[in-house]
Amino acid sequence: MQPLRVERMKALIRQEMASLLQKELKDPRIGFVTLTRVEVSPDARNANLFFSVLGSEEQIQQSMQGLERAKGFIQHRIAQVVQGRHSPQIHIQYDPSLAHSERVQTLLKKIEEEKPQGES
Questions:
Q1: Segment (H or E) for 48
Q2: Domain of 79: which CATH number?
Q3: Integer Cα distance of 13 and 19 in angstroms
Q4: Does 120 reside within a domain?
């Protein structure tokens, strides 16, 4: 498959997932979920959807369970949007990058606060 087609598919999937998260996925386990990125294999048979969740480890697990439970619905909706010979198989994965970024920011702030006065 051509790279342009894969990029277009990624954009369509990203747009549809944003809409689903905002308007249609009603599972109470799904908390504050953010789609961080979409990766589509070169043959367009697989799509990895990476999500980040703000909250505790328990909230992350619950959100992932809710997303996994909705996977068939998500798969169906993406197949409707992509409209190709094959719709990609959806794989949902947690992306810890936002949590790591938040942790680094907290540590940097703490270091800055602990500096003696007059140091830069």
A1: strand 46-53
A2: 3.30.300.20
A3: 10
A4: no
Q: Domain count of the chain?
A: 1
The full 3-state SS of the chain, as one line of letters, equals: CCHHHHHHHHHHHHHHHHHHHHHHCCCCCCCCEEEEEEEECCCCCEEEEEEEECCCHHHHHHHHHHHHHCHHHHHHHHHHHHCCCCCCEEEEEECCHHHHHHHHHHHHHHHHHHCCCCCC
Residue with tokens 């810890």: 96
Return the number of other C-beta atoms located less than 10 Å from residue 58's C-beta.
9
Strand-pair category, 46-53 with 89-94: parallel
Asked whether residue 119 is assigned to any structural domain, the reply reads no
Residues spanned by the domain of 45:
3-114
**pLDDT tens-digit series, residues 46-104:** 999 999 988 888 999 999 999 999 999 999 999 999 877 778 999 999 998 777 677 78
Both tokens assigned to 39: 């990766």
pTM above 0.70, yes or no: yes
Q: Is 79 helix (H, G, I), strand (E, B) or coil?
A: helix
